[in-house]
Amino acid sequence: MTRVSISLIVAQPRGMDAHPRHLDAFRSELDAGRGDEILVESASETWTLAPQLWARGIDRAGGEIVALTLASMAPVPGWAAAVRDAIGGGVAGVGGAIEPGPGLTALDWAVHLCRYSAYLRPFSNRLVSTLPGDNAAYRRGEIERWRPLWAGGFWETEVDAALVASGARLILTPAIVVHHGHSAGFIDFCRNRFAHGIRSGQSRRKTAPRFTTAVRVLGAPLVPFVLLIRIARRAASRGYAARFLASLPFLLPFLAAWALGEAVGGCRSRETGLAARSGERG
Length: 282
Prior knowledge:
The chain is α/β, with parallel strands linked by helices. The protein has twelve helices and eight strands. The protein has two domains: 6-180, Alpha-Beta Complex (Spore Coat Polysaccharide Biosynthesis Protein SpsA, Chain A); 186-280, no CATH class. Strands 1, 2, 3, 4, 5, 6, 7 and 8 form an eight-stranded mixed beta sheet that branches.
């Protein structure tokens, strides 16, 4: 197989700690002499989110494969080789596992389970409709066709939906693994969940019937508990029940912030307020 170059975009939203050793681990996976590169995009504004930072990085990237992650992630050995292997054979994008790193606090576990419970191993290699943006890679040519969609921010769920609708293949594989370390404080992550919830609500509003949108908005108080049950089942099935219970004081507010944001977004016909400011500052 012909070797293809990787541009890794590392997003560091405001409030997220920098992990130099994580960057060093990614550098050890890549070969700058053969076209690989790491582009770190840091936010100076509170409401600049990872998708805006990824879009910035993609604009600067020169690799045939564009990989996305956060400054809180570190790769396991063989990460880059696994990306190249998985994205062959006409595959447009690949994603992998996001495992807990060592030394996580109860707050860190709440962040991890809130965001990544669906990507804890074990799981099977399979076609999917969306990828985990914090450990994903795409063929540059595939996403360039959808540049107007992600120019203001690479929201992976929206880009993935467009790719799949056009007949592209997305694969989730347990072979591509990163470890998630300490990422954000309690207030910063609540803000993050609220802003992402707004975007999700706005996106759903564009395509869903008004009645469905109204039901989702009115049912927002139930959403945190539905999500909590789903996360609890995933955590228990992978031996993390104790970690789940310890994280509850933080996890419930995170889920509530998401549900509130999605309800607010569902009431808006266009981007305003916090979500709009995040896009303007991206």
